[in-house]
Design goal:
- The chain is built from 14 helices and no strands.
- It has 393 residues and is mainly alpha-helical.
Amino acid sequence: MPVAFANAGLWFGLIATFTVGTICTYCVHILVKCAHILSKRRRIPAMGFADIVEQAFLDGPAAINRWSRFMRFLVNAFLVLDLLGCCCIYLVFVSTNIKQVVDYYSDSDLNIRIYIILLVIPLIFMCLIRNLKFLTPFSFIANLLMFTGIAITLYYLFSELPPPESRPGVVNYQKWPIFFGTVIFALEGIGVVMSLENDMKTPNHFIGCPSVLNLGMGIVITMYSVVGFFGYLKYGDKTDSSITLNLPIEEKLAQSVKVMIAAAIFFTFTLQFYVPMSIIWKGIQHKIKEEQKNCVEYAVRVFLCILIGAIAVALPNLGPFISLIGAVCLSTLGLIIPAVVETVVYREEPGFGRFNWRLIKNITLMLFGVLGFITGTIVSITEFVAEFGSDTS
């Protein structure tokens, strides 16, 4: 988040983070309300994200019915791409922080790609775990390490802060796409929304009163804004792609933060890997003979883990990577798809409202998502090309 603010400016970043967060939250509301309407119309008790999109197109005009299966595939494809991209980012994050600590204590200056390759080896074995309950201890350890690391990081952020006037309130607009991609990557979690609501004891509290969604997103947006604002205020133009990399490497406490958060992300990798693997396996298992399923599943797990490592080795720059995943996947899933679904679901009943305000609003959301998709992708790829050019030279 601090590097996101570095690509927006101190005050513009603060306002824009709350604005993007509010839009993301509103789009979740859209999706959940459409799910409720479709559940009644189609008489389906519980649906996931892809189910909602498919049923919306089946419920819409005859001309778009035939696109329902494709839209289901598209949503699942973007979910898999997003989550595998997150796994790549996790790998780069862990490698970068571990490298910084190791380089401080040794004369070696190994390339970040070596660290990524070394980390892939234990992760392959960890990703062979198929039962989610066996991953619970990893999640518990990760949470403890993460909360401790964040607390210490905040201690560093709030010490010896410069005045706000020392940082630009708004930066050049050409940097804004990186900000957009990074913030939407941080805030967007629409892929797990329906699973959360479906598993709630009182689902009507999710978007009703009290709104669990509004409360949760309000806390998250505030936390991200605080870390982004004060992180950029503290380090300015020297803000790194992860704020942990800015902590003083010569101090033992700061070193412990880098190791703790890197370990937390490492242990979380298997949980992040579980969801895309589940989506992929669900789509292909019916094509495999029963006696071959175990071998094939393990082979797919190993292949995906190696693929993640290969992508991370090819693109080890954390900042543009995060922005690229946010711009490509989450602009589509979090902004464009919910607006499309509501347009289809509300077409006849309850309608678009007076002056077609709902249609105009959804077109605006789609255009905002497309703009973020295109500009964020172009700027991120440009940064990657520049990095490859510098590596070659």
